């Protein structure tokens, strides 16, 4: 049975992990303020030796602002008008579990309609562990309670850039 949006949101609020497939492949998501869920993500990252940073997955710039201490003006345009997967590393995050985003926080705006709908209903972003793959690893499949979406065969790894407080841009992956 495919869970509906209400069931997925309830699972997130209960501290459960979700598997999310979107334009960048598979990732595992949690409520960014649920300590136990975030600790599960951190443990999963270690168990799978995942090289990627925990990333906030947001619906729009309104949600991005909720997770960044100070957002440079250029960030609004970068996030709002991107039509390709783009992860932006901001200095100093907020509204996430202690220990995450204290010096730098990775945020990506989802371009997938189903994920956008989920984030809109949830009312905030989710914290994800991206795998950027066609399938979830076995360790990840064992910890997720529900999945949403299917990884596209032509998914794209996101571009990654670091954004300084003065709007300086440094591409880490093009």
Automatic annotation (TrEMBL):
Protein's UniProt name: Sua5/YciO/YrdC/YwlC family protein
Residues of the YrdC-like domain: 11-126
Lineage per the UniProt record: Bacteria, Pseudomonadati, Bacteroidota, Cytophagia, Cytophagales
InterPro entries reported in the protein's UniProt record: DHBP_synth_RibB-like_a/b_dom, Sua5-like_dom
Pfam families linked to this entry: Sua5_yciO_yrdC (PF01300)
Gene3D superfamilies: DHBP synthase
